[in-house]
């Protein structure tokens, strides 16, 4: 199990700085979609808990790819959910909000904590609680200019990920990186339940191309 320090070391060596947000991932598509993403170099997988059969899907992915990727849950709102993910082998807990109990429980269980923040106050509180990554959400409302202003007062060693509205746009990715972002959560522009496996992997290729050409 990786702790926050190990994650930071691993993330700095990560080829592509993306967490794949697979909301609505089906049991049928779980293995082929994630195998394709991992083979392409996208090795951080989030299955939001408002996905049908989310725990079953996460457990399936951990059994299949647990030694190849960091897999965990998103939309985690309660400490009981953190414990369930720990029990099935999950390594990362991602939330849309900042909940002190959820962050502290995550760290007590030696998992990677990634709460959602929207203000500088929330960001500092998240750091105080022990968060490893700050998820700036929704990125549609936190432009590169806004993020840059926020990061002038936050620790230079932090991990700051815009999430929500990020797409395969090299200009967008580059603007956020220049503003101080270290990575991104990619959701609907990568995966929707209505997409075929081939469509998802095509989206992944476009995302990788955008990153390489930024």
UniProtKB/TrEMBL annotation:
It comes from the Bacteria. Pfam families: Aldolase (PF01081). CDD domains: KDPG_aldolase. Keywords: Carbohydrate metabolism, Lyase. Its EC number is 4.1.2.21. Pathway: Carbohydrate acid metabolism. GO terms for molecular function: 2-dehydro-3-deoxy-6-phosphogalactonate aldolase activity. Homotrimer. PANTHER family: 2-DEHYDRO-3-DEOXY-6-PHOSPHOGALACTONATE ALDOLASE-RELATED, 2-KETO-3-DEOXY-6-PHOSPHOGLUCONATE ALDOLASE. Belongs to the KHG/KDPG aldolase family. This is 2-dehydro-3-deoxy-6-phosphogalactonate aldolase.
């Amino acid at each position: 199990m990786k702790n926050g320090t190990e994650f930071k070391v691993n993330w700095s060596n990560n080829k592509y700085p993306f967490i794949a947000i697979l909301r609505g991932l089906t049991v049928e598509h779980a293995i082929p979609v994630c195998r394709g993403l991992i083979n392409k170099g996208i090795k951080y997988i989030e299955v939001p808990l408002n996905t049908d059969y989310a725990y079953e899907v996460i457990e399936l992915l951990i059994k299949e790819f647990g030694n190849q990727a960091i897999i965990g849950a998103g939309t985690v709102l309660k400490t009981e959910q953190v414990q369930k993910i720990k029990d099935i082998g999950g390594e990362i807990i991602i939330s849309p909000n900042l909940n002190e109990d959820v962050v502290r429980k995550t760290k007590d269980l030696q998992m990677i904590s990634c709460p959602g923040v929207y203000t500088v106050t929330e960001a500092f509180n998240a750091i105080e609680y022990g968060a490893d990554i700050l998820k700036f959400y929704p990125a549609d409302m936190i432009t590169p200019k806004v993020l840059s202003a926020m990061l002038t007062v936050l620790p230079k060693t932090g991990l700051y990920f815009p999430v929500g509205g990020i797409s395969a746009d090299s200009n967008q990715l580059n603007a956020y990186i220049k503003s101080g972002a270290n990575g991104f959560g990619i959701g609907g522009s990568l995966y929707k339940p209505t997409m075929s496996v081939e469509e998802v992997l095509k989206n992944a290729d476009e995302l990788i191309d955008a990153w390489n050409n930024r």
